[in-house]
Fold this sequence. Notes:
Layout: H1 13-18, H2 20-26, H3 28-34, E1 38-42, H4 46-58, E2 62-67, H5 91-102, E3 107-112, H6 120-123, E4 128-131, H7 137-150, E5 155-163, H8 173-180, E6 184-192, H9 196-201, H10 217-232, H11 241-255, H12 275-294
Amino acid sequence: MGEVRAAVSELSQEEANIYDRQIRLWGLESQKRLRSVRVLVAGLNGLGAEVAKNLVLAGIKSITLLDNHNVTNDDFAAQFMVDRKDVGKNRAHSSKAYTKNLNPMVEVESEDGELVNKDDDYFRKFDIVCCAESLPTEDLIKVNTRCRYFSDLIQHAYTQEVPKLAKAGGPGPAKKRKMEDDMSAVIQKVMTCVPLSRALQVKAGKASTGLDRKTSPLFFLLHVLLRFYDKHRVDPCESEKEKLLELRGEVAADLAIDKERIPESLFNTISKEMCATSAVVGGVLAQDIIKVASCKDPPLKNFFLFD
Length: 307
């Protein structure tokens, strides 16, 4: 993800009053940066709804909800923005009113369409693009490549508060209070972000250069799930365990690992969206977007795996 370059705007007194608690948390400058950021959330499933909720409450400038699917009964397991009367209607449009009511100060738009079919001019309208829906790996890479192109491809600059180290031997009693009042420093950092295509191509290798013994089995499971979607264009359910086990062997061979590193037990509880899981992962994802938008604290490095 590249550096956000939205022009920083001033906060009104009303905004300062509403966002007072979070200004105390991450600072006025970070809140002003947030207030200038335009976000696109593609996919208004349970995860997308959680992300949209958290970003709107944080006080971004605008959010656009994009989805080409209609509301179904399956959505009610995790998607809290839609109602029973919305079944058969577009998910993005049906989620707009709820999203707007969360924070009237945020501009909210909804659109019917597929992210991968949007042209370059469409992507230019946003500072951050969040894809919350399942897409073929090829399409995810296309979207990632476009976003990198419009954000100078590689780097993200941010500030981080770090503790100061006390001198050896410690201060005398008279200086102790002064040191305790000034025990941290804010430093500037720059991180380099690799393309999604490269992150997914990493195979087993030497320590720090590839997949090693510390790599979570969930990362290998992610590859299996991506391959299943590429092949069937739907997310798997528990009854499709045998198909997933077949793909397990293919993934293990491609990543140059033993297939036993993808335990069969992982496939016993495969299911689609769950409310609690969407809430946790959506909260972490929204928090990471806020970090990038506010240029405060380091964002996650490529992947977040939650079990």
